[in-house]
Amino acid sequence: MSRLPQVNYRKVISALKRAGFVEYNQIGSHLVFVNEEENLQTSVPIHSGDIGRGLLKKILKQAQISEEEFRELL
């Protein structure tokens, strides 16, 4: 298994939307996404540059998306 790719927030948002998440709210510089069917919630920081791999892993864990699924959603 290879490492997670370095991606910016736009790609993470796109992948979450393909996985069934919808934009719920914005709190400061973070967008909150929910998947009401699965009762899941996660937030994505809207900052310049790439999202760190550690933070990306936490977002995927909250969204219950595996690293392989995420690569397919990109």
Notes on the protein architecture:
The protein has 74 residues and is of the alpha+beta class. The chain has a single domain, classed as Hypothetical protein (Metal Transport, Frataxin, Chain A, 2-Layer Sandwich). Helix content is 38%, strand content 30%. The chain contains three helices and five strands. The chain has helices at 9-18, 53-63, 67-73; strands at residues 7-8, 22-27, 30-35, 40-45, 50-51. The strands form two sheets. It has a three-stranded antiparallel sheet. Strand 2 (22-27) and strand 3 (30-35) form a beta hairpin. The radius of gyration is 11 Å and the shape is globular. The model has no long low-confidence stretch (mean pLDDT 95).
Instruction: Specify the overall morphology.
Output: globular
- The end-to-end distance, rounded to whole angstroms, is 16 Å
Estimated structural class: alpha+beta
Q: Total strand count, please?
A: 5
List keywords for this structure.
74 residues; alpha+beta; Metal Transport, Frataxin, Chain A; 3-stranded antiparallel sheet; two-stranded antiparallel ribbon; 30% strand; HicA_sf; hydrolase activity
Describe how the helices and strands are arranged.
Layout: E1 7-8, H1 9-18, E2 22-27, E3 30-35, E4 40-45, E5 50-51, H2 53-63, H3 67-73
Antiparallel strand pairs: 1-5, 2-3, 3-4
Give the gist of this structure.
InterPro entries: HicA_mRNA_interferase, HicA_sf. The protein is 38% helix and 30% strand.
